[in-house]
């Protein structure tokens, strides 16, 4: 008797490698608490990312929400994120992902949870804040599937 064993997996050209499904709506929050100038802190609240995935790439748009920033000198700034575009999105079979939001300067990196219901990660953004100065931030973000 002859036994034949076939295997498909990552890197095997005999079959597809499945990646986690990101399609749908995600409620996003973020804390951009570290500005390089040390003068600003921003949060992102109540923003929904609607994602559309094809294979290991994805795009999307934001609904509602906004970024709210405050400085150590009590200056403040807020900006709507409604309609912002998600682009250059990629995800690997393990669930590591990254994408840009609104501009190439705003990068989100993260990992989707084992149950595929949440994402956590790091982000770097540039905001133009009073008095018209571009400020670079790093921080954390999370998303919950809704």
Verbal overview:
With 146 residues, the protein is mainly β. The protein has strands spanning 24-35, 40-54, 57-63, 66-71, 76-80, 85-91, 96-101, 103-112, 118-129, 133-145. It has a single domain, classed as Porin. It has no helices and 10 strands. Strand 7 (96-101) and strand 8 form a beta hairpin. It starts with 23 loop residues before the first strand and ends with a strand. 26% of the residues are buried.
Largest sheet: 8 strands, antiparallel, barrel
Instruction: Give the amount of beta strand, in percent.
Output: over 45%
Order of the strands making up the biggest sheet: 1-2-3-6-7-8-9-10
Oligomerization category of the chains in this entry: single chain
Using only CA atoms, what is the Rg?
19 Å
| Number of H- or I-type helical stretches | 0
**SS content category:** mainly beta
Q: Strand-and-helix sequence, N→C?
A: EEEEEEEEEE
Name the shape in a single word. Answer: elongated
Tell me how many strands there are.
10
Put the structure in a nutshell.
With 146 residues, the protein is an all-beta fold.
């Amino acid at each position: 008797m002859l036994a034949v064993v076939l295997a498909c997996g990552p890197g095997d050209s005999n079959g597809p490698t499945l990646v986690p499904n990101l399609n749908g709506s995600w409620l996003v929050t973020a804390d951009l608490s570290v500005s390089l100038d040390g003068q600003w802190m921003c949060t992102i609240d109540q923003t929904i990312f609607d994602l559309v995935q094809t294979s290991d790439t994805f795009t999307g748009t934001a609904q509602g929400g906004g970024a709210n920033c405050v400085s150590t000198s009590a200056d403040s700034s807020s900006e709507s994120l409604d309609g912002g575009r998600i682009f250059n999105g990629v995800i690997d079979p393990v669930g590591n992902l990254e994408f840009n939001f609104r501009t190439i300067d705003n990068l989100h990196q993260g990992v989707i949870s084992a149950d595929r219901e949440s994402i956590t990660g790091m982000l770097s953004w540039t905001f133009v804040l009073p008095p018209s100065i571009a400020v670079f931030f790093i921080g954390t973000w999370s998303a919950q599937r809704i």
